[in-house]
Amino acid sequence: MDSSTPVKQRRKGIYLLPNLFTTGTLFGGFYAIVQAMQGNFDAAAAGILAAMIADGLDGRIARLTNTQSDFGKEYDSLCDMVAFGVAAGIVMYAYSLHYLSDYRWLGGKLGWVLAFLYTACAALRLARFNVLTAIAGSDKDFFGLPSPSAAATVAFFVWAAHTWGFDGANLIVPSAVITVACALLMVSNIRYSSFKQVKLSRRGPFLYMVLFIGLLTLVLVDPPRVLFLCFFGYTLSGPAVALWRWRKRSAAAA
Q1: Does residue 2 fall inside a structural domain?
Q2: Reported pTM
Q3: What's the mean per-residue pLDDT of the chain?
């Protein structure tokens, strides 16, 4: 090989547009943490919601503009961990779980232990998702509750309860149950629909448009309650479908 032949150097850099939206996910999580520490739980839930919107857009924008990259995938996972793992756990802890420290017979540390359990399960869920996506692609159903949906269930529960005027001290039991349930569902093998089969670019029945407008109207009328019920229903859908399939197989075997 001729040593005088110039070697073509690989261009270094990142795609700005999709990574700006990914940074929006990180900012939403950071904002939620700051607001939760100050007791502004409405704003904290709004931060989680903004992070979910940004997270839903960054991947689509990357595919539309053909700007996918390994850097973007890794950056997206790190930002998701902050927004849907750390931030959601801190929001629930700041609202209700920290009151468990008043019960000394429980050790006084159960609140932050439950919040950490949720955060750790979110990290495991994101790691497993990255591995399964690399092996089988991203067009299949999810194994385990997606971390954005878990964070939405936790954060919007806090939002709805705070809007109703409930003090977190009076909701320790449901707060702990929701936190632990979302944590365990994230690392479970229960299937959840990814809705990847829904193609917005294709033609569909006019009824779908009517239903979408009706749902959007309900969200605008009462955002905390409607959003919580929607994501809580999605969280329950996995175990419900799994139980239905198990009973169907049992009946067929009998």
Answers
A1: no
A2: 0.86
A3: 85
Domain that holds residue 162: 16-194+204-253
Please name the residues in contact with 132: beta carbons below 8 A apart, sequence gap of 6 or more: 140, 143
Which residue has tokens 């070697």?
Answer: 7
Q: Which residues contact 125 (CB under 8 A, 6 or more apart)?
A: 144, 145, 146, 147, 150, 186, 187
* Per-residue pLDDT reduced to its tens digit, 186-218: 999 998 887 665 555 566 676 767 877 887 887
How far from 35 is each of 1, 45, 54, 226, 242, CA to CA, in Å? 61, 9, 19, 22, 37
Residue with tokens 């479970």: 188
Question: Which position has the higher pLDDT, 196 or 240?
Answer: 240
Residue 225 lies in a domain: yes
Q: Name the one residue in this structure whose structure tokens are 């700006």.
A: 20
Residue 95 within any structural domain of the chain? yes
- Residue 8 placed within a domain: no
Q: Quote the CA–CA distance of 163 and 160 in Å, as a whole number.
A: 5
Task: Check the CA dihedral 86-137-182-105 and report its sign.
Answer: negative
| Look-up of token digits 């595919």 | 63
CATH number at residue 235: 1.20.120.1760
Domain count for the chain: 1
